[in-house]
Amino acid sequence: MSFDGIKKILKNEIDNIIIEENVPMSKYTSFRAGGSARMMVMPQSIDDLKTVLSVLGSESCRHMVLGNGSNVLVRDSGYDGIIVKIGSGFDYVRQEEDCLVCGSGSLMSVVAKAAVSASLAGFEFASGIPGSIGGAVFMNAGAYGGEIKDILKKAHIISKDGRNEYQMTSDELQMGYRHTVLHETGDVVVEVELALKKGEQQKIKSQIAELMDRRNSKQPVNFPSAGSFFKRPEGYFAGKLIQDAGLKGLTVGGAQVSELHSGFIINRGGATASDILQLMEIIQARVFDEFGVKLETEVRIIG
User: Which residues carry out catalysis (predicted)?
Assistant: First the structure.
């Protein structure tokens, strides 16, 4: 079926559904680079999301689900499919005793503020991680010795075809290093329950501030990026390998290996996705030649 046909079905099925066409993905990804998606659909509720996924699945329409776009790069040639953008209806956080229940679209920074307000400890390590809590669960995001699997009680999941809902624990999600079973199933996180613990509000706030200072002093937070570009190779640190290979500061077009932290590729201004990908390939080749280590991307490359 044509994109116009899909658009017509979705508008008939869902009241006030937001649909955009030929959408520049530089507006929706933290790299601020990349081509356009043929169409973007923004469901605002679980029921709307289930309908969207069901329609797209039944029509065998190429699509992908996008949260805050903090770990994604779309090639300059664009994405000839439909982006299902998690809408503002999934942006909420509420306290239930010593747990926080979060919509998958909630930013990590917002969840951190809610934890401080509720005097709940355990989320401090994640407070500065960019992106949404749904994406953090999908990737089992981590920092400063902690990972989302350490605090995830359960996740509310919608199947890829939109026909089923279920709950999964961290064990059931098979949460490993920057990986969950969702990478294989394509199922979608819509809500997350975090198991935290009562703590002293000032102590929690101070620890978050300390970690934020460390992050801001050691990471290029003032430039668009997707965070750590490469996964940590077993027995090594990607940033150190890149630095030891003499690549710190290397530039291709508007893309650069950060001079502050070599594990980051940044957009210094006007970088294209092709600039970023060319720089990625140079890094991978040089590190392999120098150290025999294959660097795998943490960033999802689309298109």
Answer: 178, 228 (proton donor), 298
Selecting among 178, 191, 225, 258, the annotated active-site residue is: 178
Give the domains, in start order, of the chain with CATH numbers. 3-88 (3.30.43.10), 91-216 (3.30.465.10), 220-302 (3.90.78.10)
Angle of helix 201-218 versus helix 108-117 axis, rounded to 10: 150
Does 178 participate in catalysis according to the annotation?
yes
Q: Which two tokens stand for residue 184?
A: 């294989």
Q: What pTM was estimated for this model as a whole?
A: 0.92
Looking at 36, 106, 119, 228, which residue is catalytic? 228
Q: Would residue 70 show up in a list of annotated catalytic residues for this protein? A: no
Strand pairing partners for 150?
Answer: none
- Structure token pair of residue 278: 């060319």
Residue 298: active-site member: yes
pLDDT (tens digit, 9 = 90+) per residue, 257-277? 999 999 999 999 999 999 999
137-177 residue pLDDT tens: 999 999 999 999 999 999 999 999 999 999 999 999 999 99
Q: Please give the helix or strand (H or E) that residue 58 lies within, else none.
A: helix 46-58
